[in-house]
Amino acid sequence: MLAVTESNPIVIRGGLVWDAEGRTFRPGLAVRLAGGQIGALRPEMAALPGDRVIDASGCFLLPGLIDCHVHIVSSGEAGDLNRAGQEPIALRALRAATHARKTVMAGFTTVRDLGAPGQMNVHLATAIDQGLVVGPRILAAGMGVTMTGGHGHGFLAREADGPDEVRKAVREQLRAGAKAIKLFASGGVMTPGVDPKSPSFTEDELRAGVEEAHKAFRVVGAHAQATDGIKNAIRAGVDSIEHGVWLDEEAIAMMVARGTYLVATLTAPAVMAERGASEGVAPYAVEKSNLVLADHIASFRAAVRAGVRVAMGTDQGTPLNRPGENAQEIFRMAANGLTAAQAILAATKWAAELLQLPAGLIAPGRYGDLIAVRGDPLADLTTLSDPALVIAGGAVVRNELPEFSQEASP
Ligand SMILES: [Zn+2]
User: Fold this and answer.
1) Ligand 1 center–CA 35 separation, angstroms
2) Domains of the chain
3) Torsion angle of alpha carbons 70, 76, 81, 82, nearest 10°?
4) What does the pLDDT look like over 138-147, one tens digit per residue?
């Protein structure tokens, strides 16, 4: 899945290893990766001839991080997401490749991309698979599907009306190679003239889209900010509510009952409200962000208290929400109700469960996705933003730790 697909087995010694069940780091385990997967975890591990041995003494090893909501073709510069459909496609694609590289270098080894002009996210995923570009594993949704005039139209979503047309629009994404599906259940912040408090697709339209996606074993994320849009999406059977700005008690109870995930993307409105006006974000978008911010945080806190499943997602690509800075969402979740251990789980195990991938754990048979950081994330989550080692799909993409190649027989 990455540029360096041919890789000798790797043995990592000396680090403290994340134990998701115990929600702690355990000393005294070595990890072996081979064939793109995590092989064994043992107290003592003899390296075999040809093994690449990495000394992670003093470091903390975690599964590769997962961002369940990005728009990786966008730089996150003000106005870039809306511009993405107008730029020459070749230039945009090259730009997207640099975003993919930044993302994986920051320790994010899997992302779900929920909408790109020209289905460029699907093609970028292919380029990464073929080894043309270094980047994370991308579960790309192609274009999102929205109602005529709905949020996302004109740049990252295809318009459709009525259950049959929604079905067709979803099938088009599947035909193009989409590994995830995105539906728009309400208005949003980034489309001029669209009210985030208004629902968009009807429940019947959403259900048709969900059926098509689930028939093809694809996970569905629904952009849903408005309360009625959120409830329509939950009843239609989507796997995750994206944003969930205006959750009421009933919506939260429905999510708990059905196991629907919340991917809150707290970062998206927060960075716009904090810095949007000074950094040139369109005034309509800053104004809408200020409108949603307090309610958004209150909804997230209420959902966490009630036991709604959460998975980490940034909405990277929205203004000032840049590739490679994805870890900030982990800090924001921990500042708003999750413990540090829960915030780590939301970006690893829980995210993998939403995406239905064998990732998110350091355990035999899981994807060979692993990072090492220099400080204890349970004491200071910001250590996650600068990994010393990133291994994705069993290939080392970044390493600042000492290593050697095992020459002789053990
Ligand atoms: Zn988004």
Assistant:
1) 33
2) 10-63+360-405 (2.30.40.10), 65-355 (3.20.20.140)
3) 150
4) 999 999 999 9
